[in-house]
TrEMBL record:
EC numbers on record: 1.1.1.306
GO molecular function: mycothiol-dependent formaldehyde dehydrogenase activity
Keyword Metal-binding part of the UniProt annotation: yes
Cofactor: Zn(2+)
Family of the protein in this entry: Belongs to the zinc-containing alcohol dehydrogenase family.
Name of the molecule in the record: S-(Hydroxymethyl)mycothiol dehydrogenase
Gene3D superfamilies named in the record: Medium-chain alcohol dehydrogenases, catalytic domain (3.90.180.10), NAD(P)-binding Rossmann-like Domain (3.40.50.720)
Coiled coil: none
Short name of any one Pfam family annotated for the protein: ADH_N
Length: 361
């Protein structure tokens, strides 16, 4: 029997989101219904509501979540009712070119539930990133559920479902930060600060946090940054070079997604160093770099999709580290809120007041 639950819906571009009754069908083959316990508020949710992703309104927002599997459809073997899971938005297919090459973290054919959740009048909802977890229950593909240690609090665990994983993975997976490396992180919001934490976890000797907001720099220091640079007050390229013996950092992580910060990252890295772009640019943005510098400086210019994570490999491992006190996910939960406070949380996010507001059910 389809169920009716409350969910946060964006009906039209720029309009405040509202709580609506949504209809969640029983899971079909390969699908699961998950009782959501916590879901973080991410920029991408706001981006959907502002029409920045596509025009497929109405959207059911929320995609950074943890919860309990309530029921599964035919043929589902990877999870069972009662399992505690983090939802991921890249359920790998196992058959595409990337998967066949043994690189499932890049899967080119990730999938979501086939059935649609709807409003009570039958209008189909487009779930944010194929999840839609600002809802008491949501329907996803079973591959979007990654089972983890149930002792981890849902508010903290859910964060691995998006922004925090993106930042951790930018350092650990994409950047390949290693013991003794120097790392600079440009932009220290939820994603950038997670990159700071990732760099520390990987054994970086120097971690330079760069932001235009001193509040974010203070948080970065608390999370393991060894140096901070306010790039409104100091040229970040010069500052990073100065802090690295005049050379630049081995790995520079760009967690803003703008041409000027990308250029800073490009020139703030040492010869043969790595730039990781994890901030997401908008379509009109362009960069103009001397091709000779691209060649002459060597190294690698990489982008990081979802921290190049493989949920089945990375989520349980990171939750274990969290449980052991080696990964402070709680530090990213600035506040917990109720389902009807998402609009207010967008406002706070817009003003840079929070790393993450997390809806708890
Ligand atoms: N130089 C340095 N830092 C900047 C600049 C700049 N020119 N402009 C903004 N910032 C800082 C902000 O002060 C803020 O601390 O970048 C940070 C961005 O953080 P959030 O707004 O919290 O965004 P976050 O969730 O961390 O995501 C960052 O990654 O996944 C993408 O779409 C996401 O592009 C976004 C980026
Ligand atoms: Zn997100
Ligand atoms: Zn694939």
């Amino acid at each position: 029997m389809a169920q009716q639950v409350r969910g946060v819906v964006a009906r039209a571009k720029g309009e405040p989101v509202r709580i609506e009754t949504i209809v969640v069908p029983d899971p079909g083959p390969g699908e699961a219904v998950v009782k959501v316990q916590a879901c973080g508020v991410c920029h991408t949710d706001l981006h959907y509501r502002e029409g920045g992703i596509n025009d497929e309104f109405p959207f059911l927002l929320g995609h950074e979540a943890a919860g309990i599997v309530e029921s599964v459809g035919e043929g589902v073997t990877e999870v069972a009712p009662g399992d505690y899971v983090i939802l991921n938005w890249r359920a790998v297919c196992g058959q595409c070119r990337a998967c066949k090459r043994g690189r499932p973290q890049y899967c080119f054919a990730t999938h979501n539930a086939e059935q649609k959740m709807t409003l009570t009048d039958g209008t189909e909802l487009a779930p944010a990133l194929g999840i839609g977890a600002f809802a008491e229950k949501t329907l996803v593909a079973a591959g979007q559920c990654t089972k983890v240690d149930p002792a981890a609090s849902p508010a903290a665990a859910g964060l691995l479902g998006c922004g925090v994983m993106a930042g951790l993975g930018a350092a650990i997976n994409t950047g390949g930060v290693g013991r003794g490396d120097s790392v600079a992180v440009i932009g220290c919001g939820g994603v950038g600060n997670a990159a700071v934490v990732g760099a520390r976890l990987a054994g970086a000797a120097k971690i330079i946090a760069v932001d235009i907001d001193d509040r974010k720099l203070a948080t970065a220091r608390g999370l393991g940054a060894t140096d901070t640079v306010n790039s409104r007050e100091h040229d970040p390229i010069e500052a990073i070079r100065e802090l690295t013996g005049g050379f630049g950092a081995d790995v520079v992580i760009e967690a803003v997604g703008r041409p000027e910060t990308y250029e800073q990252a490009f020139y703030a890295r040492d010869l043969a160093g790595t730039v990781v772009l994890v901030g997401v640019p908008t379509p009109e943005m362009r960069i103009d770099l001397p091709l000779l510098d691209v060649f002459g400086r060597g190294g690698a210019l990489k982008s990081s999709w979802y921290g190049d994570c493989l949920p089945s490999r990375d989520f349980p491992m990171l939750i274990d580290l969290y449980r052991q006190g080696r990964l402070d996910l709680d530090a990213f939960v600035t506040e917990t809120i109720a389902l009807d406070e998402v609009e207010k949380a967008f406002e706070r996010m817009h003003h840079g007041d929070v790393l993450r507001s997390v809806v708890v059910f």
